[in-house]
Every structure is written in structure tokens, then in C-alpha cells.
Write a structure and sequence with these properties.
The complex is a heterodimer. Chain A is an alpha+beta fold. Among the domains of chain A are: 135 residues, Alpha-Beta Complex (Dipeptide-binding Protein, domain 1), CATH 3.90.76; 223 residues, Dipeptide-binding Protein, Domain 3 (Dipeptide-binding Protein, domain 3, Roll), CATH 3.10.105.10. Chain A has 16 helices and 22 strands. Chain A starts with a helix and ends in a 29-residue tail after the last strand. Chain B is globular and about 85 Å long. Classes of the chains: A alpha+beta, B mainly alpha.
């Protein structure tokens, strides 16, 4: 319905060119003043503001401004201290010592100490806490706090993603200890250490935050931030144009076709950075004909990634060649690439024994036509369009691909988890830590694991375990470089594209700089010159 | 009459339980479970965590055990806690959304009645004239118009082009700083577009319905008799025809009682109104069983009540039903 809507309103907008051009004073002054509010549009409401009890991005987005972790990722995706002033990893990688900031206060005025860190660890790993995040702490041997400002974690074995797992939000011991966390008030009225304090939460409508005057890095320039829940992307865009929200994301269509007039450019800044996600075309390696690497390679040569990016994302994406996005440290550009090459694809299939013997345009081998069904989920137009484009290309080389679109829960439960599919179009988000164990290790190929392709490669298995245990960044990169090479050669899936995130922000906000981490990493440093402040 | 009523009420009890049994088992048969949104496709999840979550929400128990537990709680008017990560009481989640939906549905119902009955009469009275044809054309036009499309057009015209009405939500961002009078104005302004969208289709439909009923009644012999008697057309219409023509409208109103709390996903989504429609939709998508069940229970109670009310309405307005029993 959304796609239909956007087509309609696109047509309508063509007819309404004579829109009122709003003249606004955009001052040349650039003074870092305090004040004003940022109104941000989100499509979903947060669910729970105790961050490790929620897994939805809306909750994490809000909770991220209310709480701090011990460490965080900076704009270039390096791990730096947050509540920890400094941290030290022992030579053998088995012990991390955090030196905490002194004088940090919870929003209710009580001091933050190492007791809170110990408590946070205990509550996350408590069997009664219904959290999806306890898996991060399975290799922890023990945690302790020799003094008020020191927190130590010891591991059973070296675990490279360990440090980043301490980016988890630290929660206040004095408000949660001895209470049932699932019934805690903090879920709706959080108390953190972060730059913003919760002011009001009207379910399904808005969440309003106000600046924390005592924030340890200095109070944010803005007085507050409001998250408005607007479930429909078309309505969201209308609200943006009418000035009722300041910050949201655009669809590629909106970015390209509806936001280039002068009045829009005078009022808003559009940004672009690579999103932390990729879309892929995955094979079920247990099923014929995809157990044959040559068939997978032929399909890879028959898919034109450029065409998909142009058609589906209107150019706002980059070709994916592996499980990392091209602008991060871990990305290996020197892997086998598969450009569109119909001849090569045809030859490979021929050498694999596929030929069109009955002249119906579809190749056969051993009397069986080369025919399969690709599955994808409802509600994701980009994936459905991608499937259609690929369908046409595969037909050119004599492969008959059907498309089946399924409701999400059914898709996952009945087809993905049970490995009941030929091929799928799906996406993964790309976490900041390069660890790929859960998706590519052969032990995860079992039903319910995330290795949907049932990909098994001994060398990859070995490297994945080594990668988790290697703390040295350079050595670690070598390991993941090799994994990317093998994946590109084995083609368990065709990595299709990494889309661009397309945020748009009212021009009065200054201090925004797109970096590999995106644009929101320094939200508390955004400001509006006094003369332009609105709220 | 009283005996009839008691009989009707008693008959609804097994129906109600039948509804809950079937709903409970069917929603549990649908693939997927409430924990899926947290656990599926999440690399951090181990099978142990999935088990832990399932246990936490009692999902490891057989369906009938959970149904019995649910019935016990329902008997104490406890709808339980939501299975979504917020874990809030179901009743709280419904309470915060119900007023908005009720307000909009009641207002739309009133507006619908105010406009459609006179319109229906007007159509009947002017049968065959040009103005009747125009109105008929327009009512078919609006009836067939998809509500989301109308919503978008109205938003573009009034929200963006003319800038006289707000686009979405129920309150302005500065609502808290307004005076009481301005607050009412603010909400009223926000309600105009949703109400137009919510009522155009049903006004078109109901006015057609009223007019065709009226046409039917006007063909009856007793109307002919009244005309022969020389009664003025106005009296015939008001005193003799309209009463009978409106009886079927009671059925429609009775049937729309459950819709009062149902809300609508489509226009709540377009206008960002946090109402019951969205709650129902989200709980269905995330398999939040207690919320789905609570909403189904409320809706089915209202359906049953609506049916009884319609029956009573019939009995009151039609002596044949009243005395025939």
C-alpha cells in the first residue's frame, strides 16, 4: 500500500507545482547557542526503555540518548571510552580493566559507581531476565570492582568482540536491585546517565526528552528532542514539508524526485551515508541444483547489481561484494567480483551439463528443468522489485525463477528456520564488530541457526574461531580478508547491495557531519543559532 | 418482553465461550510466536535464550493449559500482561488508546446519522430529477473512493497547499502550553480530516440504504391508502413511511457497535492516530496473544450486545415483533 501511496502522491505533487514558497531567514551567523528542540519522526513507537529488554530499533534509538555504556563507537567506528575514562586489555586478552569517570550522576542525582556496572552484568545474565542480549557475556569468567571507580572483567578465553559488548547501557543499581525487572517502572520512566532525560511518553504518539543539565560531557545544546510516531512514510514526508518535524529519513524516490525544488533546498539539508545493512540473494546449498558451485556462479554472473541499484534504489546504493560495507576498515575490495556477463553465465551452465533440449527456453539436466522459487517477505518493496529484476535476467540464460512473497512470521518460521526454500532474498544488518561466526559457521547451519544457506567450509570455520580470539586489529583484519575471499569464491549467496541511508534535517540545525558511523553519533553537539530557534 | 430478553442474554453465554475457544486456538495455530520479533534473525540469540524467553512467557506449556489459565484470569477480569518487550498490563494498553478511538467513532456515527438520513429522504423524494441523479452519482463516487486515497488528497489540499489544517496526530507539539479553549480548538482541528475520511464512505452508503428502504415503503398499499385519504405528502412521509423505512437502519447501527472500539488501521496509520486499530494490527503482527485475545473478547462482547440492542430496537419500533413473541 505504501508504494501505491507514494506513486499517487508523487503524481499529485506533479500537479501541485505552485506550492507556496516559504521564505525563511537562514542566518549567516553560526553561533553555538543553547535552546530549541529537535522533532524527529519515527515510524514505530519504542517498546521498553530498559535497553536490554527491547530489541526494536525505536527503543534503542531513544534509550541511546538516556543511557551510556562503558564504551562507545566514535564517528570513525573506533571503540572509545564513554562512562569509562579509559580501559586496558591484558596481553593475553583475558582481562579488561575499566577506569570509570568520577562524579557522573544518575538523572536522580545519585552517583554512578562500579557497583552499577557489576549490577548491570548480573541482571543481564540473570536467568530470570528476559533479554536477548545475554549471549554477549557467555565467555565471561567473573566480574569484580576493586574500588568505586574500577571495574574488571575476566574471560575464560580471549574474545575479540568482548570490549564492544560493554557498550551495553549501564542501569542504576539503586533503582533496580531486588526488584522484578520485568515489572520495573524504569521501562516507562528510565533513569540513566545520558545527555537527555525523559520528560513525557504518550504511547503511540510521542516521546519527549529534555536536556540533562548535569551531563558529564556538558549539557546538549538543544533543550530537548521529541520523537513523533508517524507510521506512514507518506504522512511523514507531508509533516516534514509542512514544518512539523525536523528530522526523518527519505525514500530514494523522495530524495531524487520530490526534494529538489528550491523551496525544499532552502529549508532542509539532505545527507547520505552507507547504511549498516546489505541485501543478498541466498541459495539453499542442500538443494539441487545449488549444491553445484557452478550454478551459483552462473547466477552471480547473470545478475546485474548496477541495474538493481539503479532500478530499486535509484542509484542510492553501492555494490556489495561481501558481508561488510565498503567504507569500513574490515572491507576487502580484492575479492572475486561478478559483473553482468551473460556469455560466461551460459558457458558455465553448459559445462555443468545444463542444456535446453526440448526447446522451451528453459535449460534442463537429467530431464529436470532448471526451475526454482525465490522467497522474500511482504512489506519490503525493495526486495520484491529486486526479485523481479533478477527474474528477468535469469530468464535470459534459461533459468525459470518464480517469486513467492510471504508474511514475515510465516516466512521465518515455516520456510527459513526449517530450511524449506530454494533461494531467498533477505538482508542482514552489519554490526560494528566484524565477527561473522553466527551467520557463516557450519555449526549454525542446523535448523534454527542463522546459517540459512547451510554453508559449510572447514577453512572458514577455522578462521571464524580464530577471528573471535584475535585481539590484534591488524592480524584480525587478515583473517576476515581471507574469509571474504573464500565467500566470494564459494558464492553461498550473491551479495547484492548496501543501500544509502538518506536522512533529511531542517537547515537550522548545525554541527552535523556525515561519517562512517552515520550522522547521529554527535547528536548532543547539534545546535541552532539563537535567531533561528523555533521551539 | 422481559422473558425474551433473558432468553437472548442466556443464549449469548455459550456463544461467547465458543468465540474465545476458537479464537484462542486459532491464534495459537498461526505460525510464529510472540518472542519471534526479539529472537529471529538475531545473531546474538542462542537456543538457550529462546528457551528462556519461551519459558518466561509460558509458551512452553500446551495450548489448553494456557487457555484454562487465561479463562481463570478472565473470570477475575484480568487480561494479563502483553507479551511484547514492554510487558505492560493489557488493560493499560487498551485504556490509553480507547478514548481516542471512541471519540472518533462516536463522532463519526453521529455525523453519519445527521447527514445520511436527510440525504436519503431527499434522494427518495426527488426521484428521477436531475439533482437526485447528481447526488446519486456523488454518493457512488465517494462510496467507491478508497479512504487512504481520499486521506492523502485531503492532506495535500488542506495541510500542504492551503496550510489551514494539521496533517497528522491529535495534538500540536505546543499543546501543553495552550489555554483550555485553544486546546479544544487544537484537537478539533486535528479531528476534521480524520472524521471526513471516516464518514464520507458510510454517509454515501447509508443514505443510499435509507432511500432504497423508503422507496420500498412508499410502494406499500397503506401508503397508497394514505394518499387516497388525501393526506399531505409531508405527513405521509414523516408519520407513516419514515418510521418503517428506518427499521433496517437499526440493524446497521447494531452491527456497528463493535466497530466503535475497533478503530481503523488504515486511517489511524495515515493520520498517525494512536488508536485501537493500530494496537490490534501491531498485536496481530507480533503475535501478542493476550492483547489479541483481550481485543477479541471486547469486540465479541460488543457484537453480542449490539445484536441484542438491535433486537430490542426492533421490538420497540415494530409491534409485530413485540406482540408476536
Amino acid at each position: 500500500m505504501r508504494a501505491f501511496l507514494s506513486i499517487i502522491f508523487f503524481m499529485l505533487l506533479l500537479g501541485c507545482k505552485a506550492e507556496k514558497v516559504e521564505k525563511r531567514a537562514v542566518s549567516s551567523v553560526d553561533s553555538k547557542d543553547y535552546g530549541d528542540k529537535l522533532i524527529e519522526g519515527t515510524i514505530g513507537d519504542a517498546s521498553n526503555l530498559i535497553p536490554f529488554l527491547a530489541s526494536d530499533s525505536a527503543s534503542h534509538q531513544v534509550a541511546g540518548l538516556i543511557y551510556n555504556g562503558l564504551v562507545k563507537y566514535d564517528e570513525n567506528l573506533n571503540i572509545v571510552g564513554d562512562l569509562a575514562e579509559s580501559f586496558d586489555i591484558s596481553q593475553d586478552g583475558l582481562k579488561i580493566t575499566f577506569k570509570l569517570r568520577k562524579g557522573v550522576k544518575w538523572h536522580d542525582g545519585k552517583e554512578f559507581t562500579s557497583d552499577d556496572c557489576v549490577f548491570t552484568y548480573k541482571i543481564i545474565t540473570d536467568p530470570d531476565t528476559p533479554t536477548p542480549y545475554s549471549g554477549d557475556f557467555l565467555t565471561v569468567k567473573k566480574v569484580y570492582n576493586p574500588d568505586k571507580y574500577t571495574f574488571v572483567v575476566e574471560y575464560k578465553e580471549p574474545f575479540a568482540p568482548a570490549l564492544s559488548s560493554w557498550g551495553v547501557s549501564i542501569v542504576p543499581k539503586h533503582l533496580l536491585e531486588g526488584k522484578d525487572i520485568t515489572k520495573s517502572e524504569l521501562a516507562r520512566k528510565p533513569v540513566g546517565t545520558g545527555p537527555y532525560i525523559l520528560k513525557e511518553w504518550i504511547a503511540g504518539d510521542k516521546i519527549e526528552l529534555q536536556a540533562n543539565e548535569n551531563y558529564f560531557e556538558g549539557r546538549p545544546y538543544l533543550n530537548g528532542e521529541v520523537f513523533r510516531v508517524i507510521p506512514d512514510t507518506a504522512t511523514m514526508f507531508f509533516e516534514l514539508k509542512s514544518g512539523n518535524i525536523d528530522f526523518t529519513s527519505l525514500t530514494p524516490l523522495q530524495y531524487e524526485r520530490q526534494t529538489n525544488d528550491e523551496s525544499f533546498k532552502n529549508r532542509f539539508n539532505k545527507y547520505r551515508y552507507l547504511a549498516f545493512a546489505y541485501t543478498y540473494f541466498g541459495f539453499n546449498l542442500n538443494r539441487k541444483p545449488f549444491d553445484d558451485k557452478r550454478v551459483r556462479k552462473a547466477i552471480a554472473y547473470a545478475i546485474d547489481k548496477k541495474e538493481i541499484i539503479k532500478g530499486v534504489l535509484l542509484g542510492h546504493g553501492e555494490e556489495a561484494t561481501g558481508p561488510y560495507k565498503p567504507d569500513v576498515y574490515w572491507y576487502n575490495p580484492n575479492v572475486e567480483r561478478y559483473g553482468l556477463n551473460i556469455e560466461k553465465a551460459k558457458n558455465i551452465l553448459k559445462s555443468a551439463g545444463f542444456e535446453d533440449r526440448d526447446g522451451d527456453g528453459i535449460l534442463e539436466k537429467d530431464g529436470k528443468p532448471l526451475r526454482f522459487t525465490v522467497l522474500t517477505n511482504q512489506g519490503n518493496d525493495a526486495r520484491i522489485k529486486t526479485a523481479e529484476i533478477i527474474q528477468r535476467r535469469l530468464k535470459n540464460i534459461g533459468i525459470d525463477m518464480k517469486i513467492l512473497v510471504l508474511e514475515w512470521a510465516v516466512f521465518i518460521k515455516e520456510f527459513i528456520s526449517k530450511r524449506n526454500f530454494d533461494a531467498i532474498i533477505l538482508g542482514w544488518t552489519i554490526p560494528q564488530d566484524p565477527d561473522l561466526y553466527d551467520i557463516w559457521h557450519s555449526s549454525k547451519a542446523e535448523k534454527g541457526g542463522l546459517n540459512h544457506y547451510s554453508y559449510k567450509n572447514d577453512e572458514v570455520d577455522r578462521l571464524l574461531i580464530e577471528g573471535r580470539k584475535t585481539i590484534d586489529k591488524k592480524k584480525r583484519k587478515k583473517i576476515y580478508d581471507r574469509i571474504q575471499e573464500i565467500l566470494a569464491d564459494d558464492v553461498p549467496c550473491v551479495f547484492l547491495y548496501v543501500p544509502y541511508a538518506l536522512p533529511v534535517i531542517d537547515k537550522r540545525f548545525r554541527g552535523i557531519e556525515p561519517k562512517p558511523a552515520g550522522i547521529t553519533y554527535n547528536k548532543e553537539k547539534w545546535y541552532v543559532p539563537k535567531i533561528e530557534q523555533r521551539y | 418482553m422481559l422473558k425474551y430478553l433473558i432468553k437472548r442474554l442466556l443464549a449469548t453465554i455459550p456463544v461467547f465461550f465458543g468465540i474465545t475457544v476458537i479464537s484462542f486456538f486459532i491464534i495459537n495455530l498461526t505460525p510464529g510466536s510472540p518472542t519471534d520479533l526479539q529472537t529471529e534473525l538475531n545473531p546474538r540469540i542462542t537456543p538457550e535464550i529462546v528457551e528462556k524467553l519461551r519459558k518466561h512467557y509460558d509458551l512452553d506449556k500446551p495450548v489448553y493449559v494456557r487457555y484454562i489459565k487465561w479463562v481463570k484470569n478472565i473470570a477475575l477480569l484480568d487480561f494479563g500482561n502483553s507479551l511484547s518487550p514492554d510487558g505492560r498490563k493489557v488493560i493499560d494498553k487498551i485504556k490509553e488508546r480507547l478514548p481516542v478511538t471512541l471519540l472518533i467513532s462516536l463522532l463519526s456515527m453521529i455525523i453519519m446519522l445527521i447527514f445520511s438520513i436527510p440525504l436519503g429522504i431527499y434522494i427518495s423524494v426527488n426521484k428521477g430529477k436531475l439533482r437526485e441523479r447528481i447526488i446519486t452519482f456523488l454518493s457512488f463516487f465517494f462510496y467507491s473512493m478508497p479512504s487512504f486515497w481520499l486521506a492523502v488528497i485531503l492532506i495535500i489540499i488542506f495541510g500542504i497547499y492551503l496550510r489551514v489544517l494539521p496533517i497528522s496526530g491529535l495534538k500540536s507539539i505546543n499543546y501543553a502550553y495552550l489555554s483550555t479553549f485553544d486546546k479544544i480548538i487544537d484537537i478539533a482541528k486535528h479531528l476534521i480530516l480524520p472524521l471526513i475520511v471516516a464518514t464520507t464512505g458510510s454517509i454515501a452508503y447509508l443514505s443510499r440504504y435509507v432511500s432504497s428502504n423508503l422507496d420500498e415503503v412508499l410502494k406499500q398499499e397503506y401508503i397508497l391508502l394514505a394518499r387516497i385519504k388525501g393526506l399531505p405528502e409531508k405527513v405521509i412521509l414523516r408519520k407513516h413511511a419514515l418510521k418503517n423505512a428506518l427499521i433496517p437502519v437499526i440493524t446497521i447501527l447494531g452491527l456497528s457497535v463493535p466497530g466503535l472500539i475497533g478503530g481503523s488501521v488504515i486511517f489511524e496509520t495515515i493520520f498517525s492516530i494512536p488508536g485501537m486499530g493500530q494496537l490490534f494490527f501491531q498485536s496481530a503482527m507480533s503475535r501478542d496473544y493476550p492483547v489479541i485475545m483481550a481485543l477479541l473478547v471486547l469486540t465479541s462482547i460488543l457484537t453480542l450486545v449490539g445484536n441484542i440492542l438491535a433486537d430490542i430496537g426492533y421490538a420497540l419500533s415494530d409491534p409485530r415483533i413485540r406482540y408476536g413473541d
